[in-house]
Automatic annotation (TrEMBL):
Organism: Isoptericola haloaureus
Domain of life: Bacteria
Protein name according to UniProt: Uncharacterized protein
């Protein structure tokens, strides 16, 4: 795939149509694409070129929506493994080494959930698109950096809501 041109606006990859310029996110090229159903996402260019991403999860039939209150932290990680495979089957989003864990991106708005476990508040999203495969070192580094950046303190009322 090296040396092949970047996707251009209007190019089609399965049900995806490129609708925006190629941009770099975390050092990797991504193209803004729209599925035939109307869902838009930024997809890694390499995944488009290799045919690894040809449509959104809803159109692929992989997305099964459970009631929001039924999706626990453990259930979400089971969903990730079912839909995206083991994180170890992917390369780390940040450094390119083999990944070992799924990492929550923290920018999920109303999709974010809280669960209290053993005195710790777990933050997670109910949307698989809010996760990246990371190696342990990059996962820890990301969590430390993002927590400082977005300032997500745990408030007493959040703990009560999560219980």
């Amino acid at each position: 795939m090296t040396g092949t041109p970047d996707p251009q606006i209007g190019d089609r990859y399965g049900k995806w149509t490129v609708v925006g310029d190629v941009i770099r996110l975390k050092g990797r090229k991504h193209a803004q694409v729209r599925c035939e159903c109307g869902i838009e996402r930024n997809v890694q260019v390499g995944h488009l070129k290799a045919g690894e991403s040809t449509q959104c999860r809803q159109c692929s039939g992989l997305w099964v929506r459970l009631p929001d209150d039924a999706v626990t932290y453990d259930a979400m990680h089971q969903r990730l493994r079912k839909e995206l495979g083991s994180a170890s089957e992917h390369e780390c989003y940040d450094c390119g080494r083999p990944a070992q864990q799924w990492s929550y991106a923290y920018y999920s708005g109303d999709r974010e959930r809280l669960e209290l476990r053993n005195g710790c508040l777990l933050r997670y999203s109910i949307d698989p698109d809010d996760y990246y495969a990371r190696c342990v070192a990059c996962h820890i580094k990301y969590d430390v950096e993002i927590t400082a950046e977005v300032g997500k303190p745990v408030l007493p009322d959040q703990v009560a809501l999560a219980a």
